[in-house]
Amino acid sequence: MKVSPSIKAFEAGPQATSGVSVPARRPSALAKTLRKWRGFLLAVILPTLLAAVYFYGIAAGQYVSEARFLVRGSSSGGSSMGALGAALGGAGFKPVSEEAMAVRDYVNSEDAVREVRKSVNLVEIWRRPEADHLARLWVPNPSIEMLTRYYRMMVTSEFDTESSTVTLHIRSFRPEDSQAVAEALLRASENLVNGLSERQRGNTMQDAQREVEIAERRVASAMEALTTFRQEGRALDPTSEATANMTTVTQMEAALAQARAELREKSGFMRTDNPQVAVVRNRISALEGQIANERQRLTHGTQAAPTQLAGYERLMLEREFADKQLASAVGSLESARIDVARQQLYLARITQPQLAETALYPKAAYAVGSIFAVLCVVYGIASLIFAGFREHAA
């Protein structure tokens, strides 16, 4: 069946009937650009804009209170400590790095949180009404572990190895809150340093006192052993008595030798029954008997005196050593008392916590710029990876 020209013209549409050709619609340059960069816009620009809205329009200001201190202790030498040491400590004191680092660690610990909570309501401070929901402490009744984690975000401490100073930075949503937390932390740190000083001095005195007690027990034991020996041997000083006995025996032996010489002399011109000869003989017999008795008493017949003297000298030597140990321990105790009087640790405040006038956090420009830079780097790396996948697939 033939189609009439009018029907063909109607099917061709108004363009054919009018005789005017209309070109097809093309997407605009803006649409092409948006379609080309839609990944970058969604992955980089949109999150950056959201971050800018939060930091510039929603985030609450955080005020910082700063405090600086160092821990000082007694100095055994007279070396120069510099202008700062001379101004803060005077003669005889110097910064103590080990204790300062211990205080720095204490500030970051859970114990510090517990101590500060005794005087400052940390939960209330970090849940102020003006605080935004992202930066505030989320839980109204947090556990000590959760509070410590948030505390470590809002409280930072730095240790300078050159000057041995510790710097505290405390953030909160009100200037007076930051100052109150900083002051409470300084008081807690001072209590810690005082406790360290007391324990150090107490340990020094305890060690010295323990040595004195040990020496006193040794002296008492030596004295008791000597007393027992004297009671059993019935002699106060066996050495002196033995010396006296030996002197007596020596004198009697000299008298015996003289009597024997006299007997030989008289026997040369006198008869044996002469009374003078008999007297000399009797004196010789008496001297010999006395000498034998003295020797018997000295030795008790079985070398008892030498054994007794050896035991006595051993006890006397023990007592002498005990006395010397006691004298040394007492001297050490006196030296310890002098050292303890000089041993002192204290926390010297360099700067006091001040009331902030301007909120230093959040640093909006830095935060937004950092987010933009990081997202750009991530987007660039991801684009390279996807391009490699497409090329490999092709």
UniProtKB/TrEMBL annotation:
<keyword id="KW-0175">Coiled coil</keyword>
<dbReference type="InterPro" id="IPR050445">
    <property type="entry name" value="Bact_polysacc_biosynth/exp"/>
</dbReference>
<keyword id="KW-1133">Transmembrane helix</keyword>
<dbReference type="GO" id="GO:0004713">
    <property type="term" value="F:protein tyrosine kinase activity"/>
</dbReference>
<feature type="transmembrane region" description="Helical">
    <location>
        <begin position="40"/>
        <end position="59"/>
    </location>
</feature>
<dbReference type="GO" id="GO:0005886">
    <property type="term" value="C:plasma membrane"/>
</dbReference>
<feature type="coiled-coil region">
    <location>
        <begin position="205"/>
        <end position="232"/>
    </location>
</feature>
<protein>
    <submittedName>
        <fullName>Capsule biosynthesis protein</fullName>
    </submittedName>
</protein>
<keyword id="KW-0472">Membrane</keyword>
<feature type="transmembrane region" description="Helical">
    <location>
        <begin position="364"/>
        <end position="389"/>
    </location>
</feature>
<keyword id="KW-0812">Transmembrane</keyword>
